[in-house]
Amino acid sequence: MEHFSTGRLTAERLHEAHLADLVALHRDADVSRYLGGVRTPEVTKTYLATNMAHWDQHGFGLWTLRTQDGAFAGRAGIRHILVDDVDEIEIAYAFKREFWGLGFASEIASALTDFGLSHLELPSLIGIVYTGNGASRRVLEKSSYLLERSTIRHGEDVVIYRKRR
Ligand SMILES: CC(C)(COP(=O)(O)OP(=O)(O)OC[C@H]1O[C@@H](n2cnc3c(N)ncnc32)[C@H](O)[C@@H]1OP(=O)(O)O)[C@@H](O)C(=O)NCCC(=O)NCCS
To answer: 47 near 55, Cβ under 8 Å?
Structure first.
């Protein structure tokens, strides 16, 4: 599914032309606060290459998101992630600061969860969230993810949520 739409967002499979939008997103300290910190353009370039390779390998990954007037709003997707040596599939989302508080993350989380569990028939999806990221935790809880455990990842306190098919 290279393109899809929700009520207010259009999603397009990540590709090279999205680099400038991603660089701007990742340079914002507010956005990157719970994503491991601000990323340089070089790091985002590597991030883009890694996530495009994920698409090639698995047939799903990250999409960039636009509002109905075509403005870049953020990125979201589902992707493989190793958690304590276990291959899991996580849901991920990040929006430009000006688009927070409008229900966009809840809208895309619902669509991606449905895609992962119903269409791809994955047994479960997880969300890994910095413990202090109340907005993201709320997004997962609204999509019926259940708190599974707390752990430390890359030196940060995180919580892991899971939703099963
Ligand atoms: C986290 C993020 C994706 C949320 O996006 P959003 O579009 O603003 O989220 P929504 O509007 O769909 O929902 C947010 C919910 O959290 C609530 N909320 C906001 N701030 C909160 C806080 N500090 N503590 C608890 N709940 C909070 C909102 O009230 C809303 O709940 P409601 O619908 O019941 O009112 C957005 O802030 C973001 O992109 N942050 C930077 C990247 C990031 O942290 N990504 C997640 C990594 S795990």
So the answer is: no
Q: pTM value?
A: 0.97
Nearest CA to ligand 1 atom 2: 136
Task: Measure Cα distances from 47 to 15, 64, 94, 133 in Å.
Answer: 11, 13, 14, 22
Q: Mind listing the pLDDT tens digit for each residue in 20-63?
A: 999 999 999 999 999 999 999 999 999 999 999 999 999 999 99
CATH of domain 3-164: 3.40.630.30
CA distance 52 to 130: 25
- Pick from 9, 95, 102 the residue to mutate for probing ligand 1's pocket: most ligand atoms within 8 Å of its CB: 95
Residue 91 — pLDDT band, cuts 50, 70, 90?
Answer: very high
